[in-house]
Amino acid sequence: MNQTSKQVSTVFLQSKRHRSSLNRRWRIALYSHDTMGLGHKRRNLLIAQTLGASKLNADILLISGMRDASDLPTPDGVDSITLPALHKRADGQYEARRMGMDLEDIIRLRSQIILTTIQNFHPDVFIVDNVPRGAVRELDATLEYVRLSNRQEPSHPIRCILGLRDVLDTPAKVKKDWQRDDNIEAIRRYYDTIWVYGDPNIYDLRQEYRLPFDISTKLRPLGYLDQRARLNYVNPAVQATLERLALPADNDIVLCVVGGGQDGAALATAFARATLPANTTGILLTGPFMPTNIQQYLYGQAEQNPQLRIVDYIEEPTLLIERASRVISMGGYNTTCEILSFQKPALIIPRVTPRLEQWIRAKHLEQQGLVDVLHPKTLSAQALNHWLHQPITKSQKNTSINLNGLDNLLIELQKQPMMAQMSWPHVS
Questions:
Q1: 298 Cβ partners below 8 Å, 6+ apart?
Q2: What is the pTM of this model?
Q3: Are 90 and 354 in contact (CB under 8 A)?
Q4: How far is CA 282 from the centre of its chain?
Q5: Please, what's the largest Cα pairwise distance for the chain?
Q6: Backbone φ/ψ region at 102: left (φ over 0), alpha (ψ -120 to 50), beta
Q7: Which residues contact 169 (CB under 8 A, 6 or more apart)?
Q8: Structure confidence by residue, pLDDT tens digits, 59-82
Q9: What is the pLDDT of residues 123-169, one digit of tens each?
């Protein structure tokens, strides 16, 4: 037996002895690399909140690259570990977000934290968000540990699940990136199931990316994640923040959201310069990563425009989505799901670099009559004015979209070996 196998065996037996002395609670770990914006963390957080609030008797651990993950409200049984932060630059390359460490050093550190966490927590299910091998392959050691552990103790395996967005990028770009990162082989070697958080009637990942047959058979389209569930986990202090905005009760609310804000300056600036309709209040949510000089300019615009309010960050933006009469936004997965969940008239100005994921999603939804879309090259205050002064009309297309992703996730989880042996209550 080599040294790695001995270490795996020792850690596993210690974990097994520890767990046998406790009442049996299932363990679920969720990983997100969180290198750009807030989307990955918020998606995993919503899943963790849903699992924790269900009748599933489980301890749930979020492994997150965002510092404030542990500050957000979660049910009992949900906790988090925060990794040293990475940042993805506009060119798609990674670097340390805050520290002066070389990329190789920070990836080594993150990788060791993840591995040690999985070794000691030893989950029944390990759910990885979007990137099969993690950022810069930081999951490789952990995935190999899981594989060796499962071989040594097949009666108590760790089930690995890959969770994918509805859209990744263009088929050609996905093929190139996945070949470069050897993702197909990683999925073959390590993953039992692939959950797709989308509706194949809108975008069929299986058909678009022409994945090998053995990979396609692992796919489980769950539906989009209904963001209205987030309202169940709002901290009272956040409600108080919203009340302090003193939004006029008799005014329409136009909400502009730009994700984390690091690449939302063009949209934020155009919205701040736009002419809002009468009896309308505009709220611009800049995000925590908006450059300081841009934020200062936006606050200056708001001082000259009594119809405009600037909010740099709110813990639960769905509170504003719920209040809005219409929404202008970039096209990230979570914001788009919020628009669909609350059925808000929306104009989406998608990001088109370094990948076309947002553009593809927005155009497919536009084809179904669910949103309006503006290419960022044609973005201007005048273009926003044109949309803002159009009357709000209901779509003529009666498109049914699957928003049952969270319910279906719970159902799929019950099918996993070991967990399927339980006498389950209804867990929704």
A1: 268, 269, 272, 284, 286, 290, 310
A2: 0.88
A3: yes
A4: 26
A5: 75
A6: beta
A7: 177, 355, 356, 357, 360
A8: 999 998 876 544 566 778 899 999
A9: 999 999 999 999 999 999 999 999 999 999 888 899 999 999 999 99
